Amino acid sequence: MTVIAIDGPAASGKSSVSRRVAARLGFACVNSGTLYRAVTREVLRQGADTSSPESIAAVLAGAEIACGIGDGGESFVRVNGDDAGAELSDAQVNSHVSLVAAVPAVRELISHLLRALARERPLVMEGRDIGTEVFPDTPYKFYLDASPEIRQARRDAEGGTDRVAARDRLDSTRKTAPLRTAADAHVVDTSHLTLDGVADAIVEKLRTLGIVPK
Ligand code: CDP
Ligand code: CDP
Predict the structure, then answer these.
(1) Which atom of ligand 2 is nearest to the CA of 154?
(2) What is the mean pLDDT of the chain?
(3) Is residue 31 very low, low, confident or very high in pLDDT (cuts 50, 70, 90)?
(4) 151-162 mean pLDDT
(5) DSSP state of 74
(6) Residue with CA closest to ligand 1 atom 2
(7) Ligand 1 pocket member 132 (CB < 6 A)
(8) Phi-psi bin for 81: left (phi > 0), alpha (psi -120 to 50), beta?
(9) Which atom belonging to ligand 2 lies closest to the Cα atom of 198?
(10) Residue of 73, 75, 76, 77 whose CA lies nearest to 25
(11) Cβ atoms within 10 A of the Cβ of 154, count?
(12) Which SS3 state, helix, strand or coil, does residue 104 take?
């Protein structure tokens, strides 16, 4: 099993960089945040209270969550048969996802699904707890960071209303699997790097660890 774990806060560049690294290695690419977003969207769709772990657990118990790797080599997720598309990054989901992701039952189920994907093929997987909790034994761990101001400016430039500081705070202070840097992660400050520059740094490091680009 080979997993390249890429963690970090919102808008540190994880999704864009993971895609590039996966393409260079010939690995599949998994965005674990989409699973948390898909569950959150279902909780909201059902009108459940996102501040109630019991209500969230009830939605989860009745939901069928399917995820896998699509033909293009990227992960997909469907909850009760629906992939939700662009709704996964809408304002409602942005402002509730960290509450839902703090619920231990949600984390347990999603971590289980993520581990199953890694048994299928080599992966680049990005998220918040991939190197610390989901695959603590992988020797390939990266932590992307950038200043809060730069990360907020990146999100603003995409349009929308995502407030990264609010999610950072909840994600870093929750009890179960908080966002933190694994002791053995290679930290990359992306503040003043291009996406290709970040991908280059990661691929170079991986080469020294014996992972050869295709
Ligand atoms: O793209 P961005 O970094 O803004 O967010 P995302 O990766 O789509 O993740 C959305 C939310 O899901 C995060 O703010 C976390 O609350 C949660 N998440 C998590 O708890 N653990 C993960 N491995 C991935 C995401
Ligand atoms: O997945 P995550 O939320 O960590 O970040 P992303 O969605 O990959 O990146 C957020 C935005 O910042 C995107 O529009 C990227 O193109 C941009 N970005 C950038 O321009 N330069 C970087 N070094 C990192 C991200």
Answers:
(1) 12
(2) 97
(3) very high
(4) 94
(5) B
(6) 10
(7) no
(8) left
(9) 23
(10) 73
(11) 18
(12) helix
- What's the gap in Å between 130 CA and the centre of ligand 2? 18
Note the pLDDT of residue 211: 96
Tell me what pLDDT residue 160 has. 85
Report yes or no on 183 lying in a domain. Answer: yes
28 assigned to some structural domain: yes
Run of H or E residues at 189:
strand 186-189
Residue 157 placed within a domain: yes
The residue count of the chain comes to 214
Q: What are phi and psi of 82, to 5 degrees?
A: -120, 130
In a domain, 106, yes or no: yes
Cα(62) to centroid of ligand 2, in Å? 34
Atom of ligand 1 nearest to the CA of 102: 20
Q: What stretches of the chain show up as alpha helix (H) in DSSP?
A: 14-25, 33-45, 53-61, 91-101, 104-118, 148-157, 164-173, 195-208
Take residue 22 and report the two structure tokens written for it.
């996966």
pTM of full prediction above 0.90? yes
Q: What is the DSSP string of 12-41?
A: SSHHHHHHHHHHHHT-EEEETHHHHHHHHH
Q: With bands split at pLDDT 50, 70 and 90, how would you rate the model's confidence at 188?
A: very high
- Tell me what pLDDT residue 77 has: 98
As for how many domains the chain has, the answer is 1
